[in-house]
Design goal:
Elements (H helix, E strand, L loop, with lengths): L2 E5 L2 E4 L4 E8 L7 E7 L5 E7 L6 E3 L7 E6 L4 E6 L8 E8 L7 E2 L3 E6 L1
Parallel strand pairs: 2-11
Antiparallel strand pairs: 1-3, 3-8, 4-5, 4-9, 5-6, 7-8, 9-10, 9-11
Length: 118
């Protein structure tokens, strides 16, 4: 059974940092792109960041550029999202996803909640 399990969410003050992790199991994702998406209350799910299979190419939403960093450890079948300088508008459920090539993401986690207080 293929699973993506996010962790690391929580409550943080504006200006603070969090590191999200997404552990994959059931098969290796070393040949897949992996990414992070988020859904704020009452809004649609949005793209946050994506990383290619080798980790050499990354892409970010304009709203998080310079503050968030996506990385991966293929030996651990895990992708990370380092979030710095957090803002209240970053409050959302963050989802991990994987697929053969962005934007096609075939596998999704259940999400982890990030709340940024002002």
């Amino acid at each position: 059974q293929v699973q993506l399990v996010e962790s690391g969410g929580g409550l943080v003050q504006a200006g603070g940092s969090l590191r999200l992790s997404c552990a994959a199991s059931g098969r290796t994702f070393s040949s897949d792109a992996m990414g992070w998406f988020r859904q704020a209350p009452g809004k649609e799910r949005d793209f946050v960041a994506v990383i290619n299979r080798s980790g050499g190419i990354t892409r970010y939403a304009d709203s998080v550029k310079g503050r968030f960093t996506i990385s991966r450890d293929n030996a651990k079948n895990t992708v990370y999202l380092q979030m710095n300088s957090l803002k209240p508008e970053d409050t959302a459920v963050y989802y991990c996803a994987a697929g053969p090539l962005y934007p096609r993401m075939d596998y999704w986690g259940k999400g982890t909640l990030v709340t940024v207080s002002s």
